[in-house]
Each structure stands twice: as structure tokens, then as C-alpha cells.
Amino acid sequence: MSDNELFPGFFARGLALHVQADAALVINDLHLGIEEMHNRDGTMLPRFNFREIKDHLAHVFAELRTPEAPLKSIVINGDLKHEFGRISEQEWSEVLDMLTFLQSHCEKIVLVKGNHDTTLGPIAKWKGITIEEEGFFLPASETFATHGHKLFEDNNAYRKAKTVVIGNEHPAVSVREGVKAETFKCFLAGHFDGRQLIVVPSLNRVTSGTNILQSKLLSPYLHQPLQDFRVWAVEDKPYFLGRIGDLG
């Protein structure tokens, strides 16, 4: 396998997951509109999340752009927007702009519902996109993409899946050199319930995420021993770091 291949046919492309057999790109946890919520709560943040996500994805699309293998779908695997109970002006503007941008790079957009997506329906309807309540099945690779905040073990697509892809956790890893330590968003690859499990990092640029070496993880898919999960830190490209058990 190449340095950015998590399992055969599953590639880390920046902070996105390329599922080669389905010509699909899986992204998650954009949390568009997060700055407006913080500003309203008294923490002043400049609005940079949307711009930096769009720039990052533009590099990913440039890397993937081949006439022989255009993207058939982009799966937004939960938490496209940030607010739980309302749609802010910033969210309306940025989510619509982001969906238009993504639609220009694929044949189909898939929206999987995340725990922050309680009021995403009106925006999705405006763009003519259906929201997948539990997850989405990619048939060629037999992959079930689900946000990761809940288990859907009775879902028929989950039952026939060989690989599960989740977001939600915002995984990150701290790398230390001498007295200096830096935290990087990261991919995780392991197993759950007899299936391959891939955890995709957050696209949200406001925070680095949850340090997998120090923090209690929230996703029920990760309530298990994680020592054998493999880790790829993402900076200018993905870097394979080895097993979680060897990093602590």
C-alpha cells in the first residue's frame, strides 16, 4: 500500500477520504457558521473557516482531477453546519455556497445527518438534496458512511457493509520532538464489529480536534481498545505514524 492508503482502495487525500471503487470523496465536520455562534457568545473570531475549507478542498480536487476517474459523489458525512437549534445568516450563506462549490466537482452530493444537523432540512431542500438520516451505502466498496455519534446496527446497509466510515470524533494526535509538541488532525484505521473502520478528521479549521492520546473519545464506535488502530497525521500531506499503542 502507498503512504496514504488506509485500507486497500481507501486513500487519505488531505483531510478527505477517497473511496476509489465508488469514485467517492467523504468529508465531514465542516461546522460552517461556527464563528457567528462564538461571536454571539462573546468570543470574537474572524470568519475564516469557510474560506480555508474551500481552499483545502480545492487542492484535494486538483490532486484527484483525472478525466478517466471523475468523482461520482461527495458524501458530506455529518455536521455540515454548526448551530443545533437554528440556521444563522452565516450558515445560510456559507452552506449554500459550499454546496454549489462541491456540486461543481461531482455528479451527486450526499448529505448524511450529523448530531449538529437538526435544522439542516430547509437548506438541503433549497438545493434539492435529500438528507440520509442514518448513513449512506457505497455499493462498489461495500462501505457504510455514517456520522459516528450513534450506532445503527439494525440498518440493512450497515449489516452488509465490509467497511464503516465515520466522522464526529474530530481525531487529532500530538507529536513531540524534545520539549516542543504540535497537534495534527489525523485519520484512524482499525476495526469494529468485524468490519474495517475508518475515522476521518474534521474539516473545521477553528479547532485542531480531540487528542486521541489524552482525551476520552465520544463515538460509540471507538469505545474499545484502540492500541492497534493505525494513525495518519495530516499536515501538507498524510504521514503514517504507526499504531496508537506505540505513540503513547
Task: Describe this structure as you would to a colleague.
There is one protein chain. This protein is of the alpha/beta class. Helices cover about 20% and strands about 30% of the residues. The two termini are about 25 Å apart. It has 5 helices and 16 strands. It has a single domain (about 5-245), classed as Purple Acid Phosphatase, chain A, domain 2 (4-Layer Sandwich), CATH 3.60.21.
Topology overview:
Elements: E1 5-7, E2 10-13, E3 16-19, E4 24-27, H1 34-40, H2 49-64, E5 73-77, H3 89-103, E6 108-112, H4 121-126, E7 131-132, E8 136-138, E9 143-145, H5 156-160, E10 163-166, E11 171-177, E12 180-192, E13 195-199, E14 210-211, E15 230-234, E16 238-243
Parallel strand pairs: 4-5, 5-6, 6-7, 9-10, 10-13, 11-14
Antiparallel strand pairs: 1-2, 2-3, 3-4, 8-9, 11-12, 12-13, 12-15, 15-16
Helix/strand structural class:
alpha/beta
Any guess at the CATH architecture? 4-Layer Sandwich
Q: Give the terminus-to-terminus CA distance.
A: 25 Å
- Write the H/E string, N to C: EEEEHHEHEHEEEHEEEEEEE
Rg (C-alpha, Å): 17 Å
Characterize this entry briefly:
It contains five helices and 16 strands. It has 248 residues and is of the alpha/beta class.
Distinctive features:
single chain; 248 residues; alpha/beta; Purple Acid Phosphatase, chain A, domain 2; seven-stranded mixed β-sheet; 5 helices; 16 strands; globular
